[in-house]
Amino acid sequence: MHHIYCPYCEEMREEEEYSYTGEAHIERPKDPAAISDEAWADYMFFRSNPRGIHHEMWYHAAGCRRYFNATRDTQSYKVHETYKMGEMPSITAETLAQAKGDAS
Questions:
Q1: 18 in helix, strand or coil?
Q2: This prediction's pTM
Q3: What are phi and psi of 15, to 5 degrees?
């Protein structure tokens, strides 16, 4: 069983309390009516889906009922950090690679 830290409740809770809602930090087009159908389709349907570090949006459905972001490794499923909406991640693929290089 995985546990996820909710940055709003400030406690670790079982994964079943949360819902994954998609990739984090996707900016909605400022004027959707002014963009092409192709650009709108890209915004709506295409995500990066990387192997490794990924920034995701989650919803604490059985708790505070708030959205937050998480940095998770899609290979190991390890959640490296969670952070509130509007904040930026402190862990990225680049910072983890640098940390591994420093540890060698």
A1: strand
A2: 0.85
A3: -55, -30
